[in-house]
Amino acid sequence: MTKKDFAKALFEKGIFVSKAESERKVDAILTEIEEVLKSGDELNFIGWGKFEVVQKAERMGRNPKTGEEIKIEAKKTVKFKAGKTLTDKMN
């Protein structure tokens, strides 16, 4: 499902009055999630899941094409951990 499909599904369920409004609201929510994570905070939806930024250390890897060793730079990435309620609904 794409972001556009998700916004359309919210519109079809009657959550928003138009497709355009639905797309704007989904964009606004995602932008706010990005801002929270950029600021270094974690975002926790109790029972549903938690988003947090984690630091990955620098490491050595291999170029799969040539087999040559390469250095992979340290970077920040987003980690999501599903909460109990969401996990229970999936099983």
UniProtKB/TrEMBL annotation:
<dbReference type="GO" id="GO:0030261">
    <property type="term" value="P:chromosome condensation"/>
</dbReference>
<keyword id="KW-0238">DNA-binding</keyword>
<comment type="similarity">
    <text>Belongs to the bacterial histone-like protein family.</text>
</comment>
<dbReference type="GO" id="GO:0003677">
    <property type="term" value="F:DNA binding"/>
</dbReference>
<dbReference type="InterPro" id="IPR000119">
    <property type="entry name" value="Hist_DNA-bd"/>
</dbReference>
<dbReference type="GO" id="GO:0030527">
    <property type="term" value="F:structural constituent of chromatin"/>
</dbReference>
<dbReference type="Pfam" id="PF00216">
    <property type="entry name" value="Bac_DNA_binding"/>
</dbReference>
<protein>
    <recommendedName>
        <fullName>DNA-binding protein HU</fullName>
    </recommendedName>
</protein>
<dbReference type="InterPro" id="IPR010992">
    <property type="entry name" value="IHF-like_DNA-bd_dom_sf"/>
</dbReference>
<dbReference type="GO" id="GO:0005829">
    <property type="term" value="C:cytosol"/>
</dbReference>
<keyword id="KW-0226">DNA condensation</keyword>
